[in-house]
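Typical record was shown:
=====
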Amino acid sequence: MRELFGETLRVGVPLARYTSARIGGRADYLVAAGSADELAGAAQKLWAENCRFMVLGGGSNVLVADAGYRGAVVLNRARGVKVLPEEGRTTVQAESGASLGTVARQCVEQGLLGLEWATTVPGTVGGAVFGNAGAHGGDTAGSLHMAEILHHSGERHWGLATDMGFDYRSSRLKREPGQWVVLGAEFRLRLGRRVEVRKTMTEFVRHRKQTQPPGASIGSMFKNPPGDFAGRLIEAAGLKGARIGGAEISRVHANFFVNLGGARATDVLALIRLAHGEVLRQSKVSLELEVELVGEWGSEELTNNQTSK
């Protein structure tokens, strides 16, 4: 690994500092990528060496095991953004490590329509493409024009949004883990009245502050089942405010699990099992995880498929 990455390689790095929940053990190796080209280069080197790796952006919607991650973590710091005016519309190209919310807010300030829903969404552009992030009735599938993708085979290309296999909080990329790396995204936006676009953004920000907890949160824990809301079901099960160790099911929104201080991944996992089990028992609904569990869970591992059974 030192031969591959030289002095930029870091060994035994705690991942808690890189996740929104401030939870997670050590990675064997960590290397930062400051551009899409560096990200592609790191992925190609690791694939060539058959080295297990994951790309970590903003660290939301991911729960890293206390035992950490055996392999390499590529810290995605590819944050370049280009705004390309065209006749009647504007194209925005963003590298995958750019903050989705920051990109969306920049677009709003320029009076561009199409990404207002994303102004309060945590995480990166790459994570949004990977998991089809969404909020306020909008999602990545409805806003994306193209994404730049690197495949395990070495092929690097721009693919249309229709090629991404988007589904609710999912994509072909997410369903085929380890085969793809998102390098960038392109959004084609419409020109609007700046004052009206800002008004919409302000309303979304106000709604988020009223309905979602501040502090160290993983993000939405479970996907909303058809015709219902995971938070409503967890609250109806009497679990709002339930606490295990340093982790709590938020008293503000029951589909958000927060780190009150010193929480371990196993605390959160225990709350996941509690919420899943009680909702299934009381409402006969099997919730499916939206958050990804990564790292060394051993016999305690709980995958999305296991959770939904």
